[in-house]
Amino acid sequence: MSYLIQNRKPASVFRFFEDICAIPHPSYHEEKVADYLCAFAKERGLECYRDSLHNVLIKKPATSDRVNAEPLMFQGHTDMVCVKTAESTIDFMKDGLSLYIDGDFLRAKGTTLGADNGIAVAIMLALLDGELSSHPALECLFTAAEEVGLDGAEGFDYSKISARKMINMDSEDLGIITAGCAGGLRSTLTKECTSVPFAGECLTVTVKGLFGGHSGVDICSGRANANKLMGRLFAKWQKVEGEAHLVSINGGSKDNAIASICEAVIATANAPKTIALLQQTAKDISAELVGDDKGFVVVVEPTKAPESMFSSTDSAQLIALLAAVDNGVKEMNYNIKGLPEWSRNLGVITTEGNTVELTFSSRSAIESRLDASIDELDALARITGCTTKHYSRYPGWDYAPVSALRDLYARAYREITGKDAVVDVIHAGLECGIIVSKLPDLDVISVGPDMRDVHSPDERLNLASVEVFWKTIEKLIEMV
Q1: Which of 18, 19, 30, 146 is catalytic?
Q2: Residue 479 burial (CB < 10 Å; 0-12/13-18/19+)?
Q3: Which domains can be identified in the chain, with CATH numbers?
Q4: Contact indicator for 442, 101 with CB cutoff of 8 Å
Q5: For 245-282, how does the pLDDT look when each residue is reduced to its tens digit (9 = 90+)?
Q6: CB 431: neighbour CB atoms within 10 A?
Q7: What is the b/e burial string over 142-158, where b = at least 16 CB atoms within 10 angstroms of the residue's CB?
Q8: How many other β-carbons are positioned within 10 Å of the β-carbon of residue 426?
Q9: pLDDT above 90: residue 132
Q10: Which end of the chain is more exposed for a tag (fewer CB within 10 A), N or C?
Q11: Integer Cα distance of 4 and 102 in angstroms
């Protein structure tokens, strides 16, 4: 294939990244990337292990001058969050990404880029491909289904790992060494609604133009959630109209992405009045939003009436749930300035027939707060006629006061850039928590090049930062 990125070093990193972008790899559909990784290992005679989850471990022996050095492990995930603009026609199950260069950044046309975490995959492949003339034994773990609950990392057999130093490359700021993260869980509330014959006039209400983003990294940015804004619009509408009826509601695409679009179909007794009310409420909301959400708009259009709608009781309960459920930052960390301690994101709403599902991502480094999030959602479910399911819970990663690997990376970064790296703890979830729970004596850091607006169609990768990051990894391997 012909490659877009030219005159960047090491060329193999960018070549491998473009290869990955050409392969469809949504969460739970990483088999084609796993095929690619196994073929790569076979062509080079490298030891390779693949499990039923499509996790892949590839090992490369030490060079002759480093046979007595401790092995070093690198880790990243192969799945990507698949979010696209309303105009994009891409089929993430079948199509590769359409890449383009925008100044200093690499982007994908109308979609997420998948640099989270395809760039880690590319760097590990470059290491395994022989870019370095001297290195200890390398163990590269490519995990699956990270974006949907860290399922791959949870299911991997860690008896196959001998290294006790691991570099996770799922972080997004070049000058930051991540040394701890939040735990989290997924929750789904399901409501079975009763249908009644359609009456009145039918409208489609669309909330769109919001920026979206990562529900961990960007949760304290002030960006609005389209699903929650729809709840606010409908709470006002129901209060004025008295009896409200929903036909369907669908919003967001990933539980760990801040929903940027939501569409609902409703029945109303007076369409002009309802349109005016919703547009006035939208105007009020628009004045409150942060600059990132300047594209916010509510579109209300007449549409063909279906045969049925949800009962007024079920509609009222759904609206109450949307309006009342906590979304966003619930508490900030009292010890680390600017760090959220507890959050919840209403990422996805879907309607299939008479069944409405709302999927949430809750995060906290404190296990009792995850328990509290479960209790809160269960309580809301009881009073709104929903059932609940809680799943994909994963542990946080506690900050280690002493880390030889962290100190080593800081030295390497300083030598390459002349700057001091910042050690940080984040609110997003990382596989490090699971892996450390399986290998308690593992020394771990999480690092990466500069990425912006991951989990959104504005995701972009700073190309120059990849070169600096590679040089830092190269220097670290030289020192270890």
Answers
A1: 146
A2: exposed
A3: 11-181+396-479 (3.40.630.10), 184-394 (3.30.70.360)
A4: no
A5: 999 999 998 888 899 999 999 999 999 999 999 999 99
A6: 27
A7: bbbbbbbbbbbbbebee
A8: 23
A9: yes
A10: N
A11: 12
Residues in Cβ contact with 382 at an 8 Å cutoff, skipping those fewer than 6 apart: none
Distance, CA of 387 to CA of 358 (rounded, Å): 11
At 18-56, the pLDDT tens digits run 999 999 999 999 999 999 999 999 999 999 999 999 999
Which of 79, 263, 293, 314 is catalytic? The answer is 79
Q: Quick check: is 146 catalytic?
A: yes
The pLDDT tens digits of the residues spanning 1-22 come to 789 999 898 999 999 999 999 9
420 is catalytic: no
- For residues 428 and 80, the model is more confident at 80
pLDDT value at 335 more than 80: no
Q: Sign (positive/negative) of CA torsion 282, 287, 291, 295?
A: positive
